[in-house]
Amino acid sequence: MIIQLRWLGALLSALIAVSVFAAGAELEERVPVELVLGVENSWAPYAYENGQGISVDIVRAAYSAVGRSVTFRSRPYARVLMEVESGALDGGFNVTRQASTERRFIFGATPILIANGSYYFPPNRVMDFKGLREVPVGTRLGLIIDYEYGDDYENYRDRFFESRVGRQQQIVRMLMAGRIDVAVMFDRVASYTVQSMGLPKGSIVKGRVHHSSKIHVVFSKASAESLRNAEDLDLGLKIIKDSGLYADIISGSVSLN
Questions:
Q1: Which residue segment(s) compose the domain that 171 sits in?
Q2: Prior bond to 94 cis, omega within 30?
Q3: Number of neighbouring beta carbons within 10 Å of residue 154
Q4: What is the distance between the alpha carbons of residues 158 and 123, in angstroms, rounded to a whole number?
Q5: Pairing mode of beta strands 106-107, 205-219
Q6: In a domain, 240, yes or no
Q7: Does the residue 19 lie in any domain?
Q8: Distance between CA atoms of 219 and 70, rounded to whole angstroms?
Q9: Is 12 a residue whose pLDDT tops 60?
């Protein structure tokens, strides 16, 4: 009887130890892991060179709403994409959702913002066309390196002589110097860039809207956590939209920097 009791006690101890280990492992799985996200450094006021800006505030607030902490790494846009794709970063933004980016990255359901991009011209050479098919063949077009300009642009890009640069200020200077005929810039970014350069209004002229981009955080296909990270962001965005915080951030009336 004593031997049986000892055996039973040993068995119970082993079972308890296994249960404690399993519970601990399950708890560890639930502990939120800090995210490391890359953010481009030349898309003010959404993303400044110092790693702050409207889109950064949106992402920070959304993850904070679901108990996740985030470290941001400021990078040139092309490097953000490269490091997310390789798995060096968990994710990155501000990325337009289109066929080319969907092949490379994991997306959540909800964009962090929607931004309109328009045609911009030198003040003495304004052209009027309703869409890409009306742009004359051989037009010199200024764009940002590795930026996406919508699926429709991919269908017509062979019509243009592209000049791709790394910064918004370079596009403005090329327009003013007549080195390009037209540029595609996001409207809020164009306005901020002209103002920050100390230029008068009318230094470049806005034309028709080129496209509307759904801007996302994208996640690495190299990480098993990416689907969870995308779902947490979707939930956090819903929470801050329902609370009104999102509207305050996007309008610029609230800054979390």
A1: 116-212
A2: yes
A3: 13
A4: 26
A5: antiparallel
A6: yes
A7: no
A8: 14
A9: no
